[in-house]
Amino acid sequence: MSTTSAPAVPRQAVVTALVLLVGGLAVIFDSTIMSIALKTLAIELQVSVSTIQWVVTGYLLALAVAIPVVGWAQARFGGKRLWLVALTVFGLASIACSLAWDAPSLIAFRVVQGLGGGLMMPLMATLAIQQVPGGVGLGRLMAVVSLPAALGPILGPTIGGLILTWLDWRWLFWVNVPLCLIGFLLAWKVLPADEPRGKSVLDWTGLALISPALVGILYGLSNVSRVGGLGSMQVWLPVALGLVLLTLFALTQLRRPAAALVDLGLLKRRPVASSSAVLFLSGASLYGAMLLLPLFFQVVRGTDALTAALLLIPQGVGALLSRTLAGRLTDSIGARVVAIGGFLVMGLATIPFALAGAGTNQWWLMSVLLVRGLGQGAVMIPVMSVAYLGLERDEVPHASIITRLAQQLGGAFGTAILAVILERATSGATGLADLAYGFDIAFWWAVGFTVVAIAVCLMLPARPKKVAEAKEPAET
C-alpha cells in the first residue's frame, strides 16, 4: 500500500503537538544535559561523585513517581491546567537548581524538577492524541510528539559540554527557562481548554504502593553499575521489595477498576499489551546501547566526554531523518513491519561495534551510527503509537501512563543488565586490546537483545486497525 493513502492528521492535533513540543524539550534536555556534568559538579560543590550522582538518580526517581498520578490529575484539574502547572513547577525548579548553594540543595531541587517533568511526559502524548478522533494518523502525530526524545541525546550533551567549557555550571539549568517561558505562553494561548470531569477521587492505596515500588526497582537497578553486579544487597533487596509492591499494586487496581489509579484493564487490549511488552523488553537493545556507546568512545578510543557526545551526533541525526517516513509507514502498513524493520537495522548497525577496536576507522563508526539512528527512529514511532489504537478519550491518559512506565522500567533493566555484562567482560583487562574485547562482548549481547526485541514485535498488530478491531482482547 502506498504511504500516501494514510488519512490526514487533524490540524488541531498537529498544532497541539508542536506547542507541547516546546515545553517537552526542556524536560528531555534536562535529562540528557547532566550526563557529562557530574564530574564538574562534584568538583565545584566539593563532594564525591557517588554523592553528586543523586542529582541524576533523584531526578529519575521523582520522574517515575509522578507518572502514575497523571490520569487522576488530568481528570481532576483538566489537561491544559495540569500542563501549565507542571511546566511552571519545572521552570521554577530549574531556577532553584541554578541558585543551589550545596549538593543537598541541588539534589532536592532536582527532585522537584523531576516531579514536574514526570507529570509532563505522559501528559504530552495524552493531550496530543486526544485531539485525534478514532486514532487517525497516530504514527505521524507520534513522530512529532516524541521528537524531544530524538533531539535530547543530540543537543543535551553537546550544549552541556559547551556550557561547562565556557560558562559556569549554573547555566546548565538556566537554559531551561526560555523554553519553559515560551512553552507556557504558547500553551496558555493555543491549547484547547478541557474542563475537569467532576471531583475525581485519588486512589491513595494505589499511590502508596506504586510510588515505593518504582523507587525500589529503579534505585536498585541504578546501583548495578556502582556496586558491580546484581548480587549486591543494594541491588536485589530494593528491586525485590519493589516487585512485591508492584504486584500488590496490580492486584488492587484489577480488583477495583472503577477507582483505580491506573486502568490496568487496558492491558487486555492487544495494542496496549503488545506496545508495553515491546517497550519493556527492548530496553536492553535501545537503552543499554546508549550506555555502551559513549563509554566505548571514552574508554577504548580515549576521547573526553564532550568529544564522545559529538561523535554520537550522527546517530541522533539518523533518528531524526527516519521519523517522518516511519510515521507515515506506521499509518499505512501497520506497526509490526515498521518496528521489525527498525530493530533489524539497529541490530545490523550494532555488529560493527562488536567487531571494533581502538584502531577502527572513526569515520566508519560514525557512518554506522547514522544507519543505527535510522533504525532507532523507525522503532520508537510504531511501538509508541500502536498503544493508542481504538482507545476512548478517557482511556488515553492511562495508556500513556502504562507505556511510559514500561519504557522507564525496561530502560533501567536493560541498562543494568548490559552494565553487569560490560563490568564482567572488562574486569581484569590489562590493556586497550583487552578493554576493546570486553566491549565487543557487551555489544554482541546488545545485538542478541535486539533479536529478542524483533521476536517480541511479532505481538504487535500486523496492519492498521479500525477502532472496533483495536479493542479485541490481548490474547486473541
Which terms summarize this structure?
mainly alpha, 476 residues
Task: Summarize it.
This protein is an all-alpha fold and 476 residues long. It has helices at residues 11-32, 38-45, 49-52, 54-66, 70-77, 79-98, 103-129, 138-145, 147-166, 171-174, 176-190, 204-222, 224-227, 233-255, 270-281, 283-300, 305-311, 313-333, 335-354, 362-385, 396-426, 432-457, 467-470. Helix content is 75%, strand content 0%.
Radius of gyration: 21 Å
Roughly what fraction of the amino acids lie in strands? under 5%
| Helix fraction bin | over 70%
| Overall average pLDDT | 85
- The chain-level structural class is mainly alpha
Low-confidence stretches: 466-470
Main sheet record: none
Structure description:
75% of the residues lie in helices and 0% in strands. The protein has 476 residues and is an all-alpha fold. The two termini are 25 Å apart.
Layout: helices, strands, pairs:
Layout: H1 11-32, H2 38-45, H3 49-52, H4 54-66, H5 70-77, H6 79-98, H7 103-129, H8 138-145, H9 147-166, H10 171-174, H11 176-190, H12 204-222, H13 224-227, H14 233-255, H15 270-281, H16 283-300, H17 305-311, H18 313-333, H19 335-354, H20 362-385, H21 396-426, H22 432-457, H23 467-470
Helix pairs in contact: 1-7, 1-9, 1-11, 4-7, 4-12, 5-6, 6-7, 6-11, 7-8, 7-21, 8-18, 8-20, 9-17, 9-18, 12-14, 12-21, 15-21, 15-22, 16-17, 16-21, 16-22, 18-19, 18-20, 19-20, 19-22, 21-22
